[in-house]
Amino acid sequence: MSQRENGAPGEKGEKMLELLGKMLLVFGGMMCLFGGLLWGLGKAFGSGRLLPGDLVIQRPGFTFVFPIVTSIVLSLVLTLIFWLVGLLRR
Prior knowledge:
The protein has three helices and two strands, in the order ααββα. By secondary structure, it is mostly helical. The chain folds into two domains: 47 residues; 41 residues. Strands 1-2 form a two-stranded antiparallel sheet. The longest helix is centred in the N-terminal third of the chain and has 35 residues. The two termini are 33 Å apart. The model has no long low-confidence stretch (mean pLDDT 82).
């Protein structure tokens, strides 16, 4: 193969750095969106509050919290975010 068919030397490394840069930008943007979402949810529901339907069992010296509804809502939100990201990448 000639150098013309294979591309310039170092071109592969440049493409890898370009891809890495794009991935870091997308990851950073997703982190900002997720952080904003958590911040908004914290203000909307207050700190330490659970959603209706979350299980709390309190006994003397023992508290068990199982945030089932919060987990379902978080799962739905994350599913929507990743679905939108996948839709935009097409």
